[in-house]
Amino acid sequence: MSRKEMDARAREQLVHIAHGWYDQMRDGLVPFIRLPTRTKQNIEYNDESEVWTYGEKESMRSANSEKSAIHLLKMAYVIGFLKQQLAEGRSSTLRELYYISEGWKRAKFGAQDESNRLIEDLEILTDLQREAFHLRPEEDGAAIFGPLQIRESTQRGVREIHCQENVGEAGYPIPNNVDTLDFIDHDAKFVIAIETGGMYARLMENGFDEEYGAILVNLKGQPARSTRRVLRRLNEAMDLPVVVFTDGDPWSYRIYASVAYGSIKSAHMSERLATPQAQFIGVQPSDISDYNLPSDKLTEQDVAALKSELTDPRFATDYWREQINLQLEMKLKSEQQAFASRGLDFVTKEYLPNRLSEMGII
Amino acid sequence: MVIAEDLAKQQRSISVAEFFEKNKHLLGFDSPTRGIITTVKEAVDNALDACEEAEVLPDIFVAIRKTNSDVYRITVEDNGPGIVPKNVPYVFGKLLYGSRFHQIRQSRGQQGIGISAAVLYAQLTTGVPALVISRTGADVRAHRFELMIKTETNEPDILVDEEIDWDRTHGTRIEIEFKSTLAAKKKLLEYLRYTAVVNPHARITADIDGEITVFERVSSEVPPCPKAILPHPHGIEFGALKRIAATNSDTLDEFLVNCFSRVGRKTADEILGLAQIKPRRKAKTLDSDELKRLLEAMQQVKIPAPPAQQCLSPISEDLIRKGLEKEVQLDFIKARTRPSAVFSGHSFIIEAAIGYGGKLPAEGSAQILRFANRVPLLYQQGACAITNCISQVNWKSYGLSQQGLPVGPALIMVHVASTNVPFTSESKDAIASIPEIEREIILVLQELGRELKAYINRRDRNKLQDDRARAICSIIPEIARKVSDIVELPLVDTSPIEGKIMRKLVAKKRTCDGKVSIDVHNYTARELVFTLYNLSRDSASDAVPKPDFVDDFDGEYNKVWKCRLEPGTVWQVTYSGTGDGSIDLRGVEDNVKVVVDLDV
């Protein structure tokens, strides 16, 4: 789809929402919208796409109380703003949108969380991503290093880049809008997505990418949408297995879950963003005892997070139940860098090759 | 055996004054700060009791002045009936001397300890004698006493007794000086304020170190003075029965009828039949065994409750409400007086009130006001049956949060009126857990809780309605403007939504480009006649239509339009102006009208 067609579609979808309200009011109805309930209780596994998406539960927001009316008013203002932005061929960041609302009197946002959430609502209602509304996230995308050749259409023309040969130590930074990206060729066997920059640098320094034909992706913590989208495309279009390498604590498991199953906040995007085939490589709670890794005690919040994961439908597998219960028993957590206690090369020479062959990837 | 004899030399009886000198805390003199409050409380209680007995509207003056670094002079003066000169030394200079101990009726003071304990405390800390002035009527002169207490014998020590001129025609004044501090000033004012709440017929003027506070009366009726009644057969104990029987010369059937309340011939016969004692026996001839049988029979026979109306004086729902409203600003107040009830033969009445909102703090536990026989209880809240009952009620079901005690902008007042208030100690700070009393307190709190719940629901409903009105009359039109703009279609008319939802008379004021417009929609099904008031700095000289009436004061114009509006029609006025000020619709019931100021 061309850029122009995409803009036209976004405009049409947004105006469609306003049209619904217009018709409701013309018929003497108080304007309202319906949205799926966005909670852990309302996400369901979709057998066909193998990802978790919102279930049947819906909430209705009708302008018959002051609070809800203001909510619809804000949404109307945002739609008006986005329509204008699309018409003028401009773009803005989520943060900028929040500040723009300063001039909207009663429709002004109280905090950026609120405007971010409203944009997610619009994504759900229009079945489009916010990039389609010309809204950019402000954070950097993650970085890629490895035997992969890509073509990016940038604002300064089309660039072809090889992610080992044409990039520096930091790798190729993933742009916010990955629809401008084409994968041309690769010489890889699998993709390894890494939680921390430290471990990403370790694998690069040890030449793990060359030795095993690995594409390294630095997630930089909870991965941005564009990073998740790239992982999915590498898996789907290039047919590359994806493994996720994180710390061994409950928050890191959620990073894995958002890559593999989709996040609760963006479950409406799961079919585009999640990589159901992505596998967890470590640090597994069992590794802590198996390799006698240096560890920290679980905090109260860690324990609560683990317990909450036991009720999270995304973790409802034998593997995760076993690992989480094991960790609750041990009351310990370890970082990925803890492998360094057995030598700087241990992770690339021993742990990862062992795990990868166990998992049938190499 | 030498030891016992040595011990015997040390053994001697102690006077009640000596006992309390050593056990000041039992009377509420455990600290110098508390001493002031206890002294004022005892003197004010006595003054109120005396005024009620004489059917005089109490006018009480309380002064606390520092005389030197740590000595305070406490003065309490009343316009009561005064005390006859020969009794003054006993009332103030002897512990356990009083008129109310032997009487069965509601009164503030009971044992006659309080004020003499203050005199004792004064002579203990400063050695300054108490000064008492009393006058019993216009035709006699006032007496001025300087008094102390002989602790070893618990007898008054009169240092001065002289006749003087006094400007009051009747009343009593006491001045006591002792070492203290004014650290508890807030608590003292609290005590006086709460006293004023439950004695709305009293005027209390306080002069604390030159700072004057007046608690004005809101009722000019003296509450009827409770009358003493005879003991009830269910409330009597063996010792008391033995004592009154021993001094009685009646036959038993007459003795029972004459010396007990609610006992008639028939009941007396029933008691004596059960006790198997002959009715013609003289009361004083009964031996211990027979008295025991008699007592047992008295407990077993069903006898009506003692005559509460006679011996108790509840404050009444109306006066509780007035008293509270005067001292605390509230949005909601409800008071209840329960029917009289009985525990161990003693009559009691529970009264309670619940207040909500107003200036009460929104955070923290509800304020609890405890009273016994019209006296505020300030200390040992946690040990009191009233507090215990308040925590036992499930306030969550009445719209208040609860953490043990209810939480939120609420005030709960409980008054226990009884011929015998069961305090946990002599300092009379807390009420003991008597099941009959607790049951009544819980019942009254539940009744009031339901009233509170109804109020909160009503308020929330009104708030919801206002909220809805605002949404429908001001936000939806704004949504409509924005939406029409986005879809590029003519402005959609939202008045049908207003009409459908509101079914009311809706007045809207809006200012745009220096033009103020007020329109009134009649969405009801009937013709309405109303008056529109618009108070603002705009003179509205170009108003169309012209106001029926304009009032100009201090640069503000009150413009009044009188209108008649058919159902489904609109009335509108416009004028040039800034749109400040307010609008109001009158002549229409509140539940039918909505006023929305879109400029706010």
From TrEMBL, chain A:
A Pfam family hit: TP6A_N
Cofactor: Mg(2+)
Protein name: Type 2 DNA topoisomerase 6 subunit A
UniProt cross-references to HAMAP family, sorted A to Z: Top6A (MF_00132)
Subunit structure, as described in the record: Homodimer. Heterotetramer of two Top6A and two Top6B chains.
Family to which this protein belongs: Belongs to the TOP6A family.
Recorded superkingdom: Archaea
UniProt entry tagged with the keyword Kinase: no
Molecular function per GO: ATP binding; DNA binding; DNA topoisomerase type II (double strand cut, ATP-hydrolyzing) activity; magnesium ion binding
This protein's GO CC annotations: chromosome
Residues at which Mg(2+) binds: 195, 247
Biological role: Relaxes both positive and negative superturns and exhibits a strong decatenase activity.
Presence of keyword Transmembrane: no
InterPro entries reported for this sequence: Spo11/TopoVI_A, Spo11/TopoVI_A_N, Spo11/TopoVI_A_sf, Topo_VI_alpha, TopoVI_A, TOPRIM_Topo6A/Spo11, WH-like_DNA-bd_sf
GO process annotations (BP): DNA replication; DNA topological change
Domain Spo11/DNA topoisomerase VI subunit A N-terminal residue range list: 72-134
Keywords for this protein: ATP-binding, DNA-binding, Isomerase, Magnesium, Metal-binding, Nucleotide-binding, Topoisomerase
Catalysed reaction equations from the record: ATP-dependent breakage, passage and rejoining of double-stranded DNA
Organism, scientific name: Methanoculleus taiwanensis
EC numbers for this chain: 5.6.2.2
NCBIfam families per UniProt: PRK04342.1-1
Domain Type II DNA topoisomerase VI subunit A all-beta: 138-187
Residue ranges of domain Topoisomerase 6 subunit A/Spo11 TOPRIM in the record: 190-356
Cross-referenced PROSITE patterns: TOPO_IIB
Record: active site: 99
From TrEMBL, chain B:
EC number per UniProt: 5.6.2.2
Family membership noted in the UniProt record: Belongs to the TOP6B family.
Organism domain of life: Archaea
Keyword entries, A-Z: ATP-binding, DNA-binding, Isomerase, Nucleotide-binding, Topoisomerase
Molecular function per GO: ATP binding; DNA binding; DNA topoisomerase type II (double strand cut, ATP-hydrolyzing) activity
Pfam families: HATPase_c, Top6b_C, Topo-VIb_trans
Domain Histidine kinase/HSP90-like ATPase: 31-182
SUPFAM superfamilies in UniProt: ATPase domain of HSP90 chaperone/DNA topoisomerase II/histidine kinase (SSF55874), Ribosomal protein S5 domain 2-like (SSF54211), S13-like H2TH domain (SSF46946)
Name this polypeptide is given: Type 2 DNA topoisomerase 6 subunit B
Residues the record lists as binding ATP: 46, 78, 99-100, 109-116, 428
Assembly: Homodimer. Heterotetramer of two Top6A and two Top6B chains.
Summary of the function given for this chain in its UniProt record: Relaxes both positive and negative superturns and exhibits a strong decatenase activity.
Keyword ATP-binding recorded: yes
Catalysed reactions, as listed in the record: ATP-dependent breakage, passage and rejoining of double-stranded DNA
Alphabetized CDD domains for the sequence: TopoIIB_Trans
GO biological process: DNA replication; DNA topological change
InterPro entries to which the protein is assigned, alphabetical: HATPase_C_sf, HATPase_dom, Ribosomal_Su5_D2-typ_SF, Ribosomal_uS13-like_H2TH, Ribsml_uS5_D2-typ_fold_subgr, Top6b_C, TopoVI_B, TopoVI_B_transducer
